[in-house]
Specification:
With 249 residues, the chain is mainly α. The chain contains 13 helices and three strands; from the N terminus they run ααααβααββααααααα.
Length: 249
């Protein structure tokens, strides 16, 4: 029994446990800028953007090249290029034709699909702050269109909803809570846009609201007052005042 204990003690002293060694094996903690950094685009996405640029410069139906030629130009593997093709076809940018004279061709795109692909391209080409500023300008320019539609189509229930939601906007402004105000303001605008029978206008405006949401509102009380003036004009069916209140400041 004593020999066993001595053997155990010798093994223990010969192989000391180092807590420092275990800690050194752990990966270093990420700095804030590293874990907040957005993920980089995949190689398939980068290749898809490259071919999308070729499509933008080509006539509809034009031949872009064979799969082998375009894969070599993008410098990706066969598997990556197959994923690239799936991305391009899902966006309606290319068609693939087999056989002699086949390859990738610029697809015939509807105006709506071209619009959607143009917006997708902006996502990787423009800094967020630039897109946000541009989105705010277009959002504000669409305000009179929404006011015009609301004058013709707003029901008493629509106006009651807007009045109730305006109270939330005002409460957030009084509380000096920028995040709560931004969300209440966005919801009020979405509800106003929902009155329009123009589906394209509703969709574009909702997207612009999301893009424009990053910048803080300089004067929440003033914006709340303009919303109130617009709502009063809608209830009174006062077109001139409604359009004036919907103008950007």
């Amino acid at each position: 029994m004593e020999a066993t204990d001595d053997s155990r003690n010798r093994r223990s002293s010969a192989t000391p446990v180092s807590t420092g060694a275990r800690e050194s094996d752990e990966p270093p903690a990420l700095r804030r800028g590293e874990w907040e950094r957005p993920p980089a685009a995949s190689r398939a996405e980068v290749a898809a953007e490259r071919i999308a640029e070729l499509v933008a410069c080509a006539e509809p139906g034009a031949r872009l090249g064979t799969k082998h030629e375009l894969r070599a130009e993008c410098g990706v593997s066969v598997g990556t290029f197959n994923e690239t093709l799936r991305l391009l076809q899902s966006r309606g940018l290319v068609t693939v034709r087999p056989g002699p004279g086949g390859g990738l061709f610029a697809a015939e795109q509807s105006p709506m699909r071209r619009l959607g692909n143009s917006v997708l391209a902006l996502d990787s080409q423009r800094p967020d702050e630039v897109c946000g500023e541009e989105a705010r300008r277009i959002r504000d320019a669409l305000g009179p269109l929404l006011a015009e539609d609301a004058l013709w189509h707003a029901s008493p229930a629509d106006l009651a909803d807007l009045r109730r939601m305006l109270a939330d906007v005002a409460a957030a402004a009084d509380a000096d809570d920028p995040d709560a105000f931004a969300e209440a303001d966005r919801q009020w605008r979405v509800r106003l846009a929902a009155i329009s029978p123009n589906a394209l206008l509703r969709s574009v405006y909702a997207t612009l609201l999301t893009l424009a949401a990053a910048a803080p509102v300089a004067n929440p009380a003033e914006r709340c007052a303009r919303h109130a003036a617009l709502l009063d004009a809608l209830e009174a069916r006062d077109r001139a005042t409604a359009l004036e209140a919907a103008q950007p400041t």
